[in-house]
Amino acid sequence: MQELTNYNQELINRISLIVEKLFQSNSLYLVKLNKQEMIEILVDLFGKFSPEEFMAITDNQLTDRIDSILVLEAISGTLNDLTPEEIKIFDEAVEGR
């Protein structure tokens, strides 16, 4: 049980540090995302890895993976923020009109 607690704390610490750095370097994340919510989602996601698998991921690899996830989360609702006129322009551009 102690090993599971240590692993969970390592997971939280490692992910939190990376998320903190990424939020500091990307203003889009600050505007679009809730940092604590993202940490919780990422801890849940990476918690599915075994301790050995997670520890085998280098910090650079983990940063790249987390950054990719944050980008997707940040832009996923972008179309929802558009006005009807902007949506029409977007649709026309996609259709090639």
UniProtKB/TrEMBL annotation:
Entry protein name: Uncharacterized protein
Domain of life: Bacteria
